[in-house]
Amino acid sequence: MLAFGAQWRKMESEGNHLMRFTVADFMDVKPGVIAKLARDADFYVGAADAATDRLVFDEKERVGAWVAAQAEQTAPWGSFYALGIERRGELIAGIVINGMNGSNATVHFAVKRLSKSFVALVHHGADYCFRQCGLRRVTGLVESDNAKALALDAHLGFEHEFTMKRAGSKGQDVEVLVFWREHWEDQENFLRRKR
User: How many angstroms separate the CA atoms of 32 and 19, rounded?
Assistant: First the structure.
């Protein structure tokens, strides 16, 4: 595997526009988001480590299994796409996108160590959903007692859509969150102006 920047530049030169930005493009995007998450979470890692992170985009079964284990997901994903971040051979973050219907997909995040590379990973997951697949939205389902996941999703731009009463694994509520294509387009335009 190539380092983040080299890998994305190689893919772009081959005509693959899914991976278009390097980690450096995200080093100063919404610094308050990463700082706030660092205060709220005990798994923050600094930018120095992010420079050695590797994107895993061609091992969907491996990433999917890792995300499922982190989320204690026992049901199969069905048809899905997954990408993740690896540091020194160990997965530290992953995204699974499944249940696509042409307008919407369900997205699942797992994060062991939060870093600025995770912001880049989320952007590329959104790029896949909105540019490659043409979706209008992605949906996240978070159990209401998972405060860290709810805070992370809110910081990433997900909006609360509604609550499913007693739908969680232990009878707790499940919050249905949505990330809109327009929100991603606003972020994309911000990055283009920054260049």
Answer: 24
How many structural domains compose the chain? 1
Contacts 24+ apart (CB under 8 A), 94-97: 94/56, 94/63, 94/64, 94/66, 94/67, 94/70, 95/63, 95/67, 95/121, 95/122, 95/125, 96/63, 96/64, 96/67, 96/68, 97/125, 97/128, 97/129, 97/138
39-71, pLDDT tens digit by residue? 443 333 444 455 678 889 899 999 999 999 998
The single-letter code of the amino acid at 136 is R
Enclosing domain of residue 169:
4-194
The number of residues in the chain equals 195
pTM value is 0.74
CATH of the domain at 72: 3.40.630.30
131 with 114: CB under 8 angstroms? no
- Backbone phi, psi, residue 91, to 5°: -70, 135
